[in-house]
Amino acid sequence: MAALDVQRITLAVIGTASSTMREKLGPLLGTHKRLGTMRSITDEDRMTYSNLLVEQSGPVCRIWLNREPVRNAQSQLLLDELDAALTRARDDADTRVVVLAAKGKHFSAGHDLKEAQEKRADFSVEERWAYEEKRYFNYCMNLWDFPKPTVAQVQGACVAAGFMVANMCDLIVASEDAFFSDPVTHTMGAAATEVLIHPWVMSLRAAKEFLFMGERVSARRAYELGIVNKVVAIGELPDAAMQVAQRIAQAPPFAMRILKKSLNRVADAQGMRQALSAHFDLHQLSHVSSEYLRTRDAGLAKAIQKGATHGA
Questions:
Q1: Looking at residue 235, what DSSP letter applies?
Q2: Which residues of 128-166 are buried (b: 16+ CB within 10 A; e: fewer)?
Q3: Which tens digit of pLDDT belongs to each residue from 65-81?
């Protein structure tokens, strides 16, 4: 049995066991030469997060989006929990690398539009700006600026805000069944997602095709475009992402930290941060256009159905 399979089984057992049993099972986790010492999901994590699962494998923290029934659609609570979990991993001296993964068949179908329709459809300009600046723009930039290396582990749908979040990570390991799309302009009448990371992870011409067409891009095509670093069979994805993370974690952590800072400054020197901020402002303008308002009045949830024919 593969080492990661043993880890998953152990986590499942410990996660449902009593505190006494967890204390007895703890020593059985042992140390694996390749993966390091496994620390189970703590009681604190289980109480704090309802939309995430967190596991520790030696110097690697893997955070799982855990809204499988809705294709890991990003609700307000999920985003708040993800930012909190990243903060905890940032402050943990034992964590050197973070893997962002998702339970189920899909990485993320994007924002939870049903929740948006129920709770935010009638937001004022000021309310929407504040909400999206905090949870969409700032949370994404927190991930981009995360001081430790990050690896996205992507399978199935990686759509719209799912694409946005995954591409704030340093590397992406994808399964062969993964696909990427941002059909927001076609389906909702909005100017793409809140963080226009697209031309920074592929060429400008490719980004224009990707967004103008709003169609799916396969994992293999995403690899050719430079979006994805590695494509593996679906059954190999968890191990492959962990192997990449564990390899990175072998480097001296401070040297890796300042190397990442220098690499990100290359993009900053080219104007990336200013361009992303400028797009966010224009994206907010698109929310008050007659085109978007027609979509909102018809029901944002209908955009999900429309998206099924445009890449979602």
A1: G
A2: bbeebbebbbebbbebbebebbbbbbbbbbbbbbbbbbb
A3: 999 999 999 999 999 99
Instruction: Give pLDDT tens digits for 44-62.
Output: 544 479 999 999 999 999 9
Domain residue ranges of the chain, discontinuous segments joined by +: 41-307
CB 3 within 8 A of CB 34: yes
Coil/strand/helix, residue 63:
strand
Which of the listed CATH numbers 3.90.1150.10, 3.40.50.720, 3.40.50.2300, 3.90.226.10 matches domain 41-307? 3.90.226.10
Which amino acid makes up residue 218?
Answer: S
Neighbours of 195 (CB within 10 A): 27
C-alpha dihedral over 290, 188, 84, 163, to 10 degrees? -140
How much is the pTM? 0.83
pLDDT of residue 10 exceeding 50: no
293, containing H or E segment:
helix 290-298
